Amino acid sequence: MSKNETNLQRRQRRVRAKLSRINKAGLPRLSVFRSGRQIYAQIIDDVKGVTLVAANSLEADMRDKLKSGGTTDAAGKVGTLIAERAKKAGVEKVMFDRGAYLYHGRVKALAESARDGGLVF
User: Fold this and answer.
1) pLDDT digit string (tens) for 100-121?
2) CATH number at residue 52
3) pLDDT digits (tens, 9 = 90+) for 21-64
4) Assign residue 118 a region: left if phi > 0, alpha if psi is -120 to 50, beta otherwise?
5) Is residue 102 part of a domain?
6) Could you give the CA distance from residue 71 to residue 18 in angstroms, rounded to a whole number?
7) Beta bridge partner(s), residue 41
8) Of 7, 11, 6, which Cα lies nearest the Cα of 99?
9) pTM of the predicted model, to two decimals?
10) Which residues, including other chains, have CB under 8 Å from residue 71's CB and lie 6 or more apart?
């Protein structure tokens, strides 16, 4: 394992540990993963260990609308989509898990559009 991989994992573990300390109500977690070309979001119930809803920039309807999956525009659309699906599943409040990424750029765009879509975090 390279030094970068261990640092990434360390940051991710630190963020998740803080979320678990704060999350006394057992809220589901909105987890974000971004690669160089795509962005993915899932709402996970850690108590049951299941994914409640998921959305990403690779879905068929998203690919038709987007020029690239690795832009802030794509992240915003994924955030809106995850918020819509969460409402249908009955999820209103979540904890935002940015993973090892800074709250900036695509991660921030996804979070803000999910908030605009009705998710509370």
Assistant:
1) 999 999 999 999 999 999 999 9
2) 3.30.420.100
3) 999 889 999 999 999 999 999 999 999 999 999 999 999 989 88
4) left
5) yes
6) 28
7) 32, 55
8) 11
9) 0.91
10) 106
